[in-house]
Design goal:
The chain is about 35% helix and about 20% strand. The chain is α/β, with parallel strands linked by helices.
């Protein structure tokens, strides 16, 4: 009997459970495979006792409509920088990758499917180079993996953000206010761009286009002078002013290695007031609402197909590769290629930027 280990790493994302279900459902058509899940990514393998669960038909029944992941996830489990508690109670990051691979081998695992974003797949590539038979599945609401046209979870996040814009428009109009909505997007502004076009906002601020606060205020004041006594702004959490930096802070969480973002909506509000914005301003941070809840149909379909394809790649021994959605087809590309180029919003070649400008949306530049 062959064994396949599934894990979900990084932030949670609508569609994770649909991928897991797709893998297990497809495996049931083979007589000699069993599928297991590692709880909280590689933590399940590294803990003593280990937290490994069998993923059978009963466990995955109906989960494709549920948010989150039934095998949990974490942003703090990089095996190459794994937090290890020392004798004095402090933690030190250590390279535990060899230990991880040995433990997976001792479990009799024949293939690993890692469902995660850019960071998770970079880890997958490094583990593959050390001999782990791993396959990647692209997951991130930021849509920041360039090898695939879409990552699952992105469309659901856009729907959540667009619905929030719709609600804020009526509040802004009723009170003659400027409403600033902050969405996720550390380095890529795809959610902000899509939600801005869908919601018909006045200003969209993304990490790829540093903004001039004076131009933002000029645009808002101009709208008020035309008799439109309200306006809506969408800003990605990684957006920054010209000659400025993104608003970020160090994290004190054990094992969390990235800087934390958030609060840029309030910073923008302060900057606008300092620059002479005449309007009454309110701020709203959408936050983790973008990550949770029922995935939209597009993401369920994409996730299910990714899961089926990933298992079939395992059957064929196509390790060190990641399943992608490209030109309406499901393909595979080497992990090193999948993580080689970050999927920024290309300001000069992304037509949606041109379309946004065409309907009058300002990027503050």
């Amino acid at each position: 009997m062959k064994k396949l280990l599934v894990l979900t790493g990084g932030g949670d994302c609508p569609g994770l459970n649909a991928v897991i279900r797709g893998i297990v459902k497809r495996s049931m058509q083979e007589k000699d495979w069993k599928v297991y899940g590692s709880i909280e990514a590689y933590h399940g393998v590294m803990r003593d006792p280990q937290e490994i669960v069998e993923l059978d038909n009963n466990r995955i029944a109906g989960i494709h409509v549920k948010g989150g992941t039934i095998i949990k996830t974490t942003t703090k489990g990089d095996p190459f920088n794994y937090p290890v508690k020392q004798a004095d109670g402090t933690y030190k990051n250590e390279d535990r990758s060899d230990d991880l691979i040995a433990r997976i081998k001792d479990l009799g695992i024949d293939a690993v499917i890692s469902i995660g974003g850019d960071g998770s797949q970079r880890i997958s590539q490094k583990l593959y180079e050390k001999g782990l038979p791993v396959i990647g599945v692209p997951k991130t609401i930021d849509n920041d993996l360039s090898a695939t046209d879409f990552t699952f979870g992105f469309q659901t996040a856009v729907e959540v953000a667009s619905d929030a814009v719709d609600k804020l428009v009526t509040t802004a109009e009723s009170h003659h206010r400027v409403l600033i909505m902050e969405v996720m997007g550390r380095d890529a502004g795809w959610i902000a761009l899509h939600a801005s076009i869908a919601g018909g906002v006045e200003v969209c601020l993304i990490p790829e286009i540093p903004y001039d606060i004076n131009k933002v205020v000029e645009r808002i004041n101009e709208r008020y002078h035309r008799g439109k006594g309200f306006a809506n702004i969408v800003i990605a959490e990684g957006a920054k002013p010209i000659d400025g930096e993104a608003l970020e802070r160090e994290s004190d969480e054990i094992g969390y290695q990235m800087k934390r973002l958030g609060g840029v909506a309030y910073q923008l509000s302060h900057q606008m007031k300092q620059a002479g914005c005449e309007a009454d301003i309110r701020e709203m941070v959408l936050g983790h609402l973008q990550r949770g809840g029922t995935p939209v149909a597009f993401d369920r379909i994409l996730s299910t197909a990714f899961g089926v394809k990933a298992f079939e790649m395992a059957l064929a021994g196509k390790f060190g590769q990641m399943v992608v959605y490209k030109n309406n087809d499901y393909l595979e590309v080497p992990l090193i290629e999948a993580t080689g180029e970050y999927n920024y919003v290309d300001v000069n070649n992304t037509y949606l930027v041109q379309a946004a400008r065409g309907v009058g949306i300002s990027f503050g530049d």
